[in-house]
Amino acid sequence: MGEHVGEDPNAGRPVTVGVDGRPGGVQALSWAAAEARTRGAALRVVHAYQLPIAPAAYPPGDYDVYALDEAAQEVVSGAVAEAAPEVGDLPVVEVTAEGNAVQVLLAESASAALVVVGTRGRGWLARGVLGSCSAGVAARAHCPVVVVRGPGGPPDAPVVVGVDGTDLSDTVLAFAFEHAARHGVGLRAVLCSTTGAGSDAGSEADEPARAVAEALAGWREKYPDVRTDRIVVRGRPVDGLVEESAGARLLVVGARGRHALAGTLLGSVSQGVLREASVPVAVVHPAP
C-alpha cells in the first residue's frame, strides 16, 4: 500500500472513499468531501488494483507492480482533481493498494469514521445494479458505509431513517440523528408495516405508530433542534423506504451483522434499498 501525502494530519478518524476511475467514484468522492468538511475530518481517497484483472484499464505491457501503482496513483489524483470544488482545502491522504477492492476497503474501515463508495453508473440503467464491491463493503465494514446511489436532495432535505422496533434501531437512530443535527436538517423516521398507516398526527393507540414513538423515545430530547416526523407506511419495507426517501439528503438503514457472504448479511431490506434507492444510503451495523 502506498500513501503519497504522508500521515493523516487529522487526529480523528477520517472519512474514507473508494474510487475506481468511473463517474460513480467521483460522485462518491464529492459526497465524502462534503461530509468530511462537516465533521472536521481528513479525507482518505483509496484505489485498489490487482495484477492484472482488467488489462484495458492500464497501458499495454505495464503490468508490473510499480507501473500499476503509478497508474493507480493517477486514478486517485485524477478523481481528487475532478472533485476539486468539493475537496477544496481539506486535508487529503491519497492511498493506493494492491489487492481486492473489497478487502482493501474493509481493512480501511477499521480505522475510518465512515466509508463511502459509489455505484457503477447513473440513471435508469444503474437502477437495480449495486455491484459486488459496494455490497461487500456495506455488508462487512467495521464502520458505517454510505453507498452514493444519487446526489440526494437539496441542502435542507431531511434524513430518512428506517426503524423496525429492534435493538438495532437505536444504533441506526444514533447515526441518523447525529447526521441530521450536524447538517441542520430534519429527520423522518419510517416504519413499514402490514397493519396500520399514519403520520406524526396518527393515533398512539395504533401499534405501528406506538412502535415508532417508542423507538424515538429519548432521541427527541437529546436532539431538540432536529425536527422529527414519524411515518408509518403500509406495505413492503423496501418500497416504503424508497418512496419516503425520494428527494431526501440520506436514507439510513441497519444491517444485522458481519459475515463472509454479503447477501446473507445485509438482509432483504438493506439489499433492496441499496439497489432501488435514488439517494445516498447509509448502512449502519450493530454496535460491537
TrEMBL record:
Record organism: Actinopolymorpha cephalotaxi
SUPFAM superfamilies per the UniProt record, alphabetical: Adenine nucleotide alpha hydrolases-like (SSF52402)
Protein name: Nucleotide-binding universal stress UspA family protein
Ranges of residues in domain UspA: 13-149, 159-285
Family affiliation: Belongs to the universal stress protein A family.
Gene3D superfamilies with a match to the protein in the record: HUPs (3.40.50.620)
